[in-house]
Specification:
Elements lengths: L3 E6 L6 E6 L3 E5 L2 H7 L3 E6 L4 E3 L4 E5 L4 E6 L5 E6 L5 E4 L10 E6 L15 E3 L1 H6 L11
Parallel strand pairs: 3-10, 10-11
Antiparallel strand pairs: 1-2, 2-5, 3-4, 4-9, 6-7, 7-8, 8-9
Length: about 140
């Protein structure tokens, strides 16, 4: 699929995000932090290049870990994105996009943190928290053998 430029925004429209997406694959995070922050599983589309944020005077940033931070609108409270601290990688809320018409739910992460009282019906790739985090471990951190 060719790169497609899409726009996302908060509820009040004060914060807007333009991003180039290589795919419209939606991933779901069930970690405790995302569920508390988003009021349920966080559904997001990945973006890593050419992400432009307008309305930064209303943008709130919360440092949620040593490697990531979460963006939200200070005026209306909308959950907007998770990003790496170097801003090289974004997971933008799928619900904030104006025109996510070609979306497919493809992946669920931190599946081991998901409460038993809900389940998504879609067939997706699933990863535990440990499996997901292992993708980012440096070569020194990986076990030998």
């Amino acid at each position: 699929m060719a790169t497609k430029r899409l726009q996302a925004k908060c509820l009040c429209g004060g914060v807007r995000i333009d991003a180039d997406l290589e795919s419209q694959e939606v991933g779901v995070c069930h970690c405790d932090i995302c569920r508390r922050w988003a009021g349920g599983p966080f559904m997001a589309v990945e973006a890593s290049e050419n992400v432009i944020i307008a309305g930064t005077d209303l943008l709130g940033i919360y440092e949620s870990s040593g490697w990531g931070e979460r963006g939200f609108c200070n005026a209306c409270g909308t959950t907007l994105f998770w990003r790496s601290k170097d801003a090289a990688h974004y997971a933008i809320s799928a619900m904030a996009f104006d025109d996510l018409t070609e979306a497919d739910l493809t992946k669920q992460i931190f599946i081991d943190s998901k409460p038993d009282w809900y389940a998504l019906a879609n067939e997706t790739q699933t990863m535990t928290g440990a499996e997901f985090l292992a993708q980012f471990a440096s070569e020194e951190d990986k076990p030998n053998g």
